[in-house]
Every structure is written in structure tokens, then in C-alpha cells.
Amino acid sequence: MESKKKMLLCLFLLVAQLSVTQKIADKLYEKGLAELQAGVFDMAVKNFNKSIQKNDKFVDAYFKRALSYTYLKKYEEAINDYSTVIELSPNDEVSFFNRSRIFTALKEYEKALSDVNSAINIDKEFIEVYYQKASIMLKMKNLDGAISTYTNLIEILPDDPRAYYNRGLIKYRNGDKKGACEDATLSKSKNTACALNLYDPLKQLIENSCDEKQKQVLLADKQDKDVPFEIIEEVPVYPGCEQVPKSELRKCFQEQIQRHIARNFKYPEEAQLKGIQGRVFVQFMIAKEGCVAAIRTRGPHPILEAEARRIISLIPRISPGIIEGEKVNVPFSIPIIFKLQ
């Protein structure tokens, strides 16, 4: 009887110790997670290390450490952590997907392809994996494989305009103009400017792959009607301008765009280090659905152009412009100035 009590006491103490150890591991994990979200990746790794030392089966800690290593461009360490996650949790499709992206960056395409296939086997409706697989196929110069991958995706998402567009683009590259035009037509029938930023690329695919009669039909669609900001009857209404008198709406829109740029402006660190500055001219469209689409930039350096696109892409949904009672697309242009102090 005494022996049994001792055994139960030992078991209780062991469970209690494991519970305390896990609580410590959880706290260290939470610290690492906060640092990961704050972009302090080195410190995140240190806390995930400590968490894993307390519990070497802590799947989430390995996964988040892998993410931290990826941001630090320590790809081998990230691969090792994702491999550990997969060993501990064989049906973790996201780890297969993330590891495949690293293998792709390292140009280890066969390994990347194996991982995306594993992810698809686990979850056949993991949409982004199909895009990743098609991208790998293209890098391997397997155009037919990429087309087949998009066909599989379309079976799952028959209303996805991006899948039709991408498949059409590859068909065009593969010499199949008829098939490319068919896919461009399907993409256009399912696309809205707010769903995806396909406005300009889709028009280009139609121009390149369709015959003149098809182009007249597809490009004459009212969906593509653009009315310049300067002459639009009812200008797009930026959030915050709803109560402004109609005569002041144009001015309010322009002021709110300027405020948006000022609030979201970040001078790229690389551009500062390299002394890159100048004016980036940005043209975009306020689509009839109310979103920003078709962003184009022209500036002194790609780094500045990328930052300008990022800023404009963050513009919130806007009440679209109207002419003759019909919502229309409204192009708008503005310069963004990058000047070193």
C-alpha cells in the first residue's frame, strides 16, 4: 500500500513538473511571437530556442522559429525547423508549402516540387499551393505542367479569374493563341478590378492573343470605360469626404490622397543608404467597384517605384466616380517625392 502511494506521489510530481515546464515554454514562446510580429527576428529566435529547450516537441515554436530564420535569410536553419515540424506533425501542409518556397528560392526545384505535391495530397483545396506549383513548373521550363496545374486549380475554383489569366498567359507563351484568347475571355467574364489587379495585364493578353473581331467585342465592354478625373461629373468620394459640398469634393479627394501618402510614407532604407532620391509619377485607377487598380509608376529607381506602389495600394475603398448615372473607372495621377534630408 505504501509503495503504491509513493508511486502515485512520484507520478503527481512528474505531471506537475511537466506542467510547470510547459508553462515556462509557453511564456517564452509568447515572447518570441511578439518579437517576430515586431520584426525583431534575432530576439525571436533566441526566445524560441529557450522555449524548445524546455519542450523539444513544441511544434509551434519550431514553426515560428523557421519563419524567423526565413526573414533572417538563414534558409538552411529554416529548412531544418520545417523538417522537424513535418516529422512531429506529418500532415502539416503549411510547413511543406513554406519549405517548398525556400527550396524554390535556393533553386532546388525538384525538392520544391516534391513538397508542393505533399501539401496538395494533404489538402487538395490549399489554393496558394497550386500557384506555387505552377511557378515551380515555369522555372523548370515545364509549360505543359504549369498549364495542367492551373487546370487542376480551375476545377476547384471555377470562378477564379487569376487562374484563367495565368493559364492563358502560359498558353500564349507556348504558342497557343487560340487557347490563350479563350482563357482571357473566361478571365474577363469572371474578373472585377477589385478582385484582382488584372485590368491592364488582361487587356494586354486580349490584344496579343485574340483576333480583331474578338478584340472589338472584349475591349468594347462597358466595364472598361474610363473617364478622366478632371471631367468626371461626380468625382470618386474618398472616405471622410462624404459630408463635403459637391463643389468641394474634387479638392477633398486630392487632399485626402495627399494625407494618405504622408501617413503611409516610408523612405526605403536601401534607397537612403545608396543616396537614391527623386520624383515618382504614379498613375492608378479608381475602379467602378471602388478599389484602386492598374497602378503604374515611373521614377528614377525601382526601389522608389516599389515604395510608391505600396503606398497607393493601401488606399481604402472609395465610392466610385459616376457619369450619366453609371459607375465608371476613373484614372488618377499624382507625383510622390522622395528627397533626402
CATH class of the domain at 246-338: Alpha Beta
Q: What is the chain-wise order of helices and strands?
A: HHHHHHHHHHHHHHEEHEEE
In CATH terms, what is the fold-level topology of the domain at 246-338? TolA/TonB C-terminal domain
C-alpha Rg (nearest Å): 26 Å
Poorly predicted tracts of residues: none
Largest sheet: 3 strands, antiparallel
Strand content: 5-15%
CATH architecture of the domain at 246-338: 2-Layer Sandwich
How would you characterize the overall build of this protein?
The structure is a single chain. The chain is mostly helical and 341 residues long. Among the domains are: 170-224, no CATH class; 246-338, TonB (TolA/TonB C-terminal domain). 62% of the residues lie in helices and 9% in strands. It has a 3-stranded antiparallel sheet, covered by helices on one side. The longest helix has 37 residues, at 2-38. The model has no long low-confidence stretch (mean pLDDT 86).
Furnish the topology, listing elements before pairings.
Elements: H1 2-38, H2 41-54, H3 59-71, H4 75-88, H5 93-105, H6 109-122, H7 127-139, H8 143-156, H9 161-173, H10 177-190, H11 199-209, H12 212-219, H13 249-264, H14 269-273, E1 278-286, E2 292-298, H15 302-313, E3 321-323, E4 326-328, E5 330-338
Antiparallel strand pairs: 1-2, 1-5, 3-4
Helix pairs in contact: 1-2, 1-3, 2-3, 3-4, 4-5, 5-6, 6-7, 7-8, 8-9, 9-10, 9-11, 10-11
